[in-house]
Amino acid sequence: MAKYPKIPEATIRRLSNYLKCLEDLEAKGEKVASSSHLATICNVNAAQVRKDFAYFGEFGIRGMGYNIKELKDHIKEILGINREWRIAVIGIGNMGSALLVYKDFLKQNYRIVAAFDIDPSKVIGHISERMGRPVEILHIDRLKEVIEARKIEIGIITTPPQEAQKVADLLVEANIRGILNFSPAPIRTPEPVKSMNLFFTAALDNLVYHLTNN
Amino acid sequence: MAKYPKIPEATIRRLSNYLKCLEDLEAKGEKVASSSHLATICNVNAAQVRKDFAYFGEFGIRGMGYNIKELKDHIKEILGINREWRIAVIGIGNMGSALLVYKDFLKQNYRIVAAFDIDPSKVIGHISERMGRPVEILHIDRLKEVIEARKIEIGIITTPPQEAQKVADLLVEANIRGILNFSPAPIRTPEPVKSMNLFFTAALDNLVYHLTNN
Q1: Is 1.10.10.10 the CATH classification of the domain at B9-79?
Q2: Between chains, do B205 and A19 touch, taking CB under 8 Å as contact?
Q3: What ipTM was estimated for this complex?
């Protein structure tokens, strides 16, 4: 695939947001969007939209707006989501269960192909009762075997915080490429494994900053 | 409180991360941290740490490192989390239930004081069975009354996507100040209400970008 220059984190985040907005427009039957229209629905300014897209050369035709389908494909290629990514979720409590049925994953080529828990017998009833058991829940002991067999590249950790690093270590042993950690305990992984912590307090901190300072 | 210059979004996000790292250090009994130590455990570089703190004048004493307690207090003041924020969660399915017991909220002065659902009788059993019902779950019809009575400033939406904007409109009517939306449908709110969408696909997009391009 094409390689792009080093892009600021904030731009990467916005690309993902533009993609989401473009999908909403497409769902409404739209074919073309101007940068100012896209800016309005994505809640950024039009100059920012044009600046973000300028990292990747010329998108669209000046004065004509962007072809929504082409722009979506282009953003997907840049982000690397123009192919399927196979995912395992580890820890099937409330948060893990919520992810197993999160509607937007499939739309975006994110496919959860395995779910693990320390006590699958306990959670299976819970899952199947509430939403028809979308994936089989396996014992954590089978993590390495299943991750390799099912060619899983991404692990999502939704265990209690005290288990998060242990699970991360198991995932690294199983040759995972990336980890998204939803538990409130930060995890660390050795190169080249890429891990990200998603703390809900951080999202609230950001909101509160704007409530306090704007 | 003190006012600070306009700070880049990425810095605000990192401040929240530094705070989390400082809390982990404090829990281990540490009193002082150098910028390079903080950088290592927060997974950024030391120059970035110093640059981020420079937005707020001088922190710490050169060569002596930062006093962890003072630094924490300073960051909390900047972010506006040096006081309690009262929160309502709307939509008590798996995701809402996960937030009701999310361990880090209380540590950070985020207090969930109300939970709402369209069918509280259905969810109460689920919640109380699994975690002892930490807050009473009320019918959504009581939203406005309870938000005003309990002085709630932030609403967290964890409903199915097709309900998200309707709930956001109700929250705006109830004079909420800020909304964090966890449903995959983007919401919009009129000024001065501040709303943020937290899409899990965006977190995966970011991870995948780094797996693809690094």
Answers
A1: yes
A2: yes
A3: 0.91
